[in-house]
Amino acid sequence: MVSIVFVPFAAQGHVAPMLQLARALVADRGDVSVTVAVPDFIHRRMGQYRGAGVSLASIPTGVQDVGGDEPPGAAAIVHAMEHHMPSQLEGMLTKKMLQGGVSCVVVDLLASWAIPVAERCGLPIVGFWVGMQATYRSVAVIPELLSKGFVSGSGTLLLKDGINEDHYIKDHDLGDLHIFSPKVKLRAKDLPWLVSGAVSQKTRFAFWLEIVNRAKSLHSIILNSFPGEDSGDSYQYDPPWGQQILHVGPVLLSEDLKKTTSMWQADQTCIDWLDKQSPVSVIYVSFGSWAAPIEPDKITGFARGLEASGRPFLWALKNHPSWRAGLPDGYAEKIAGRGKIVSWAPQDDVLKHEAVGCYIMHSGWNSVLESLRHGVRMICYPICGDHFINCAYVANMWEAGIALPSSDENDVKDCVERVMEGEEGRRLQEKVNQLREMITGDAVCVAKRNLNLFMEGINNN
Hints:
Layout: E1 2-7, H1 12-27, E2 32-39, H2 40-46, E3 54-59, H3 74-83, H4 85-99, E4 104-108, H5 114-120, E5 125-129, H6 133-140, H7 142-147, H8 166-169, H9 198-215, E6 220-223, E7 244-247, H10 249-252, H11 255-258, H12 269-275, E8 282-286, H13 296-309, E9 313-316, H14 321-324, H15 331-335, E10 339-342, H16 347-351, E11 356-361, H17 365-373, E12 377-380, H18 387-397, E13 401-403, H19 409-420, H20 422-439, H21 442-459
Parallel strand pairs: 1-2, 1-4, 2-3, 4-5, 5-6, 6-7, 8-9, 8-11, 9-10, 11-12, 12-13
GO molecular function: quercetin 3-O-glucosyltransferase activity; quercetin 7-O-glucosyltransferase activity
Pfam family, one: UDPGT
Protein name: Glycosyltransferase
């Protein structure tokens, strides 16, 4: 029996694709079992998950969890990952090795703390990157940027004679660094560590650099993406010598595999509501499960823009004051009959519904993949992390959606009209359909072959 342990990062958007990968591995292989080791506060919310050959195990974190919809804060989670969880995982792996063995540990690279743990146990390790290859490239080049003097030790870009000129840096195009194709039109501030505030930037940069240094020793990295994401461009990540990059994203989009447990209870009345709407008429809105709450004035702008669009809309907005404080007084009554607001939606079922015409999103990678899988045009409003790179690919590289310039009522209304109407809307739909055909066609065969290569690597170890 091949026994594999998965260690995902502590977020819904990381646990879900690793569960899907686990299910894909055991689906056609009777001799494989997967244990997905999650932090205790996630296990309390998802512990009811059951699947043939796949089980959840709880890693104590020492983090206070008050329960409810919101998990503990990011700072507490990151501290637990480096200072409390390693010894707990090492104990778990040691016990499993005594009970029958562990064939391999698959580590989400954002949970890179688990790599030295598995190394101490003498176990084979494979990395997992939950996003696209381009976002991995954005952090994998950090050592090179440091060595060439393009970036300081705190992550600040030094693009003019080694001088940090903030007004120059902020909107500087990154084409001359040859990290991405010029077609992507990425700016310096879109890099995942360049967050607001010098202290948080330095901490985030150190976090990414630690990931890159730990990942250097890995022989294989599994990517939740598809081959050809750069549309045939030559800007590809050049991995360390001997490191294997395996794209498996298209396999994980299988409808059977998408039915995994969520940390939140989805409102199933969404589907009944969508059944009553005209085809391709509904705007679906969701800003994901992990992103920090959007400021009240921005929620107000979205609310008024959706109302002004005159179109039916379904908005997944957490039922928490931090998310809903910006809704105008009496808004639910005002949009009743045309708009529906729920705390959490069954997203995959929503996106595949014929009534949905576009998706206003935070540009989280799982949401981008799901939107492409179901042929839905996107309006991107990135919030943090890799969202900005994902948005740039959607809007500029693939032309499968547009970037929302702000949450202003007029911008929201204008972007909805652009995507849902006229020649631009038709052109966007054609691009989305082409990508959908690619990731549900030949790319699936490549992904399945890569899963087989992964298993062969384990069997030959």
